[in-house]
Amino acid sequence: MKAFHAIKMVGGALIVLASINAYAQSSDAAAPAAPTAASAASAGPRSTSTKKADSALGRKVRNALSKTKGLSVANITVRARGGAVTLAGTVPEQPQIDLATQTAQGVAGVTSVKNALSIRPVGQ
């Protein structure tokens, strides 16, 4: 009985390894034959300086939103990446969505604003 269990485990492991190998081969086939230094850098993980810059931009936008009169920022999340800012969350009224977008666009360093805010009346 133990031998049968061991065979099942080995067979399962072989199937997993074959699947991983097949996935890796299909990914390698889609890659260019000789990547350039620029494409290799853009495909890699973001550097710490880029992350810090994005974080600082997000803080600047969040600070600007919090200073905007007539805007409830309690449920707004700000994400920044390479100058592109995404606003997500909820606000109580439609005019606040427009106000948040205009305020974010006015912050230095923001290249684009994606507004994913939705309306959720107070108390819901």
Folded structure, characterized:
The protein has 124 residues and is α+β, with helices and mostly antiparallel strands. Helix content is 54%, strand content 18%. It has helices at residues 2-30, 37-43, 48-66, 94-105; strands spanning 76-81, 84-91, 112-119. It has a three-stranded mixed β-sheet with strand order 1-2-3. 12% of the residues are buried.
> Could you name the ranges where pLDDT drops below 50 across 5 or more consecutive residues?
25-31, 34-41
| Beta-strand share of residues | 15-25%
Question: Secondary-structure element sequence?
Answer: HHHEEHE
How far is it from the N-terminal to the C-terminal residue, by CA? Answer: 59 Å
Number of strands: 3
* Contiguous helical run count: 4
Strand neighbour order, sheet with most strands: 1-2-3
Q: Helix- and strand-based class? A: alpha+beta
Q: Helix share of residues?
A: 40-55%
Mean pLDDT: 80
Q: What general outline do the C-alpha atoms trace?
A: elongated
Radius of gyration, whole Å? 24 Å
* Major β-sheet annotation: 3 strands, mixed
Write a compact overview of the structure shown.
The chain is α+β, with helices and mostly antiparallel strands. The protein has helices spanning 2-30, 37-43, 48-66, 94-105; strands spanning 76-81, 84-91, 112-119.
List the helices and strands and how they pair.
Layout: H1 2-30, H2 37-43, H3 48-66, E1 76-81, E2 84-91, H4 94-105, E3 112-119
Parallel strand pairs: 2-3
Antiparallel strand pairs: 1-2
